[in-house]
């Protein structure tokens, strides 16, 4: 539900989507990406474009099918021209927290296969440093039998608190599209995210983290006043 910035998100997706004939497009997950897929379908129809879409989740797959867009996968299209996705939080270096909807693993795989990874988000996702906006922590997808030792290991080494994500209308834990669990790590301070990401990924049983570092090429923020703010990675 992002009514205030819906108009700017539409504008943002107009700006960031420039699909060309024969493009392979990665389709992200969440509520914001719905705007992008609407625009994509519009452009494909208006310009009679031939594209194929690679989904990052069950939800994305349904979205692609609903719009009648050609569905593909990484078996057939391991190299994508562009992947477009939302984010839960974006810091000033374009480090992202993703996985609020539990789709982080497939999203990261698809983004990594794309020549360009573009993010669209509303202004509430914009922060100087991670943790200012998104209060639920960093999602970590884990193999179910290992969720307790992984959680203990993360808090022992990096502090904070780890919570097993529970279903809203389902009794028991959330189960991802890959049949795994999600731990939400509520960190207490700003870390060196590259180091933390690598360390967490090395814990046996960790499938993926929701930290997307040095991946996003550009972020389009839909602002409250209907404008669009663009952020590119800092030049080092
Ligand atoms: O797992 C979900 C994804 O990472 C989403 O892209 C992210 O949570 C942002 O979702 P929304 O656009 O609904 O805020």
Automatic annotation (TrEMBL):
<keyword id="KW-0413">Isomerase</keyword>
<dbReference type="InterPro" id="IPR004788">
    <property type="entry name" value="Ribose5P_isomerase_type_A"/>
</dbReference>
<dbReference type="GO" id="GO:0005737">
    <property type="term" value="C:cytoplasm"/>
</dbReference>
<dbReference type="GO" id="GO:0009052">
    <property type="term" value="P:pentose-phosphate shunt, non-oxidative branch"/>
</dbReference>
<comment type="pathway">
    <text>Carbohydrate degradation; pentose phosphate pathway; D-ribose 5-phosphate from D-ribulose 5-phosphate (non-oxidative stage): step 1/1.</text>
</comment>
<protein>
    <recommendedName>
        <fullName>ribose-5-phosphate isomerase</fullName>
        <ecNumber>5.3.1.6</ecNumber>
    </recommendedName>
</protein>
<comment type="similarity">
    <text>Belongs to the ribose 5-phosphate isomerase family.</text>
</comment>
<dbReference type="GO" id="GO:0004751">
    <property type="term" value="F:ribose-5-phosphate isomerase activity"/>
</dbReference>
<dbReference type="Pfam" id="PF06026">
    <property type="entry name" value="Rib_5-P_isom_A"/>
</dbReference>
<dbReference type="GO" id="GO:0006014">
    <property type="term" value="P:D-ribose metabolic process"/>
</dbReference>
<dbReference type="InterPro" id="IPR037171">
    <property type="entry name" value="NagB/RpiA_transferase-like"/>
</dbReference>
């Amino acid at each position: 539900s992002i009514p205030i910035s819906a108009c700017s998100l539409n504008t943002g997706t107009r700006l960031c989507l420039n699909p060309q004939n024969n493009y392979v497009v990665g389709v992200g997950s969440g509520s914001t990406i719905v705007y992008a897929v609407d625009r994509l379908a519009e452009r494909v129809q208006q310009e009679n474009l031939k594209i194929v879409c690679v989904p990052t989740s069950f939800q994305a797959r349904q979205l692609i099918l609903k719009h009648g867009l050609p569905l593909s996968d990484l078996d057939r299209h391991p190299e994508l021209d562009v992947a477009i996705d939302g984010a839960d939080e974006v810091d000033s270096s374009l480090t992202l927290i993703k996985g609020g909807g539990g789709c982080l693993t497939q999203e990261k795989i698809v983004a990594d296969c794309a020549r360009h990874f573009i993010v669209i988000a509303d202004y509430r996702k914009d922060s100087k440093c991670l943790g200012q906006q998104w209060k639920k922590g960093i999602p970590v997808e884990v193999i179910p039998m290992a969720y307790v030792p992984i959680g203990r290991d993360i808090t022992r080494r990096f502090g904070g608190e780890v919570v097993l994500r529970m279903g809203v209308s389902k009794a028991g834990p959330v189960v991802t599209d890959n049949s795994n669990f999600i731990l939400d790590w509520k960190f207490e301070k700003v870390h060196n995210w590259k180091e933390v990401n690598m360390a967490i990924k090395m814990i046996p049983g960790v499938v993926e983290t929701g930290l997307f570092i040095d991946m996003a090429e550009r972020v389009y923020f839909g602002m409250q006043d209907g404008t669009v703010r663009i952020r590119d990675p800092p030049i080092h």
